[in-house]
Amino acid sequence: MRWDHLAENPATARAAALFDADAVTTRTFDTPEFRGITFHEVRARSIVNRVPGASRMPFEWTVNPYRGCTHACVYCFARKTHSYLDLDTGLGFDTQIVVKVNAPELLRAHLGSRRWHGEHIAMGTNVDCYQRAEGRYRLMPGIITALRDHANPFSILTKGTLILRDLELLKQASEVTDVGISVSVGFVDQELWHTVEPGTPAPERRLDVVRTLSEHGIGCGVLMAPVIPFLGDHPAQLRATVRAIAAAGATSVTPLVLHLRPGAREWFMAWLERRHPYLVRRYERLYAEGAYAPKWYQRRITRQVHDLAREYGIGPTHAGTRRRIRPSEPLTSAPTVPDAGVTGPTQLSLL
Known about the structure:
This protein has about 350 residues and is of the alpha/beta class. It has helices at about 90-95, 105-110, 135, 140-150, 165-175, 190-195, 205-215, 235-245, 265-275, 280-285, 295-310, and strands at about 25-30, 40, 50, 60-65, 65, 95-100, 120-125, 155-160, 180-185, 220-225, 255. It has a 7-stranded mixed sheet with strand order 3-4-7-8-9-10-11. A 4-stranded mixed sheet has the order 1-2-6-5. Strand 10, helix 8 and strand 11 (about 255) form a beta-alpha-beta unit. It is globular.
């Protein structure tokens, strides 16, 4: 494993290391929730990271207290980051977790620096800050407390229900600064969830988080991600997901089609070969141009989800209005697999 000269961005690999090899403590815990998982506790040198200028992300600064993720999502785009440590981007990403144990104190010192001007900080954008490890290491209370004390705006994206543990802190922070919370729910299909997101709470439990936050006055949006081509994009599946999101009281829904960056692509395609070999050629065609699905496909999904969101009353224009939720209609047959070569409407631009 390579710790020395590790940089958050590989382009800056010659910069000072984020932590030294002699600052690493490796632990395992013989408990059911952590069996088979190795934790590498490190004392990081920095915790606030600048997003590369070429990134598509709508924010400039992030905080990531963990590397690797026990959610074990087969499509996770962050898998490539494990290769910077000479760790495996497949099973190693799911089971070798780097814990920056001094993250709260580092953040507090950073926020108090005269060089810091109170910019927005995004969390959960690389790996989930409320993955199972957080239940043991409890880094987020200290992080949120530091942000609250400095009235620094922040946002959190998570698949974890553990965020509700910090509900009181989130309420306190929202009284002094802008706090944005989003929960990731790409689908409500139980079989799909079990196979592609095996370490995450069930989609309905994540929607309970949305519901609870809303009941306590904290608006919560849903990142409907990823929409998985040919497995989670059937109109009936999209309708069921948006309907459930609306029923949970989400303030918004933002669809995001699966993207397959290097590291994630190899792991996902190996999984696809095992579980759905008939789809391999379709994926090779759909993602022939790179990590992202074609724009016509992304726009089609965006249009469908936006239309459903309007139908179910999701959105800021009528906040507080009763959602138009009809009884769900059971699927009478398995979703059909659309052909990747059929184009659809493209009048809406991507989010």
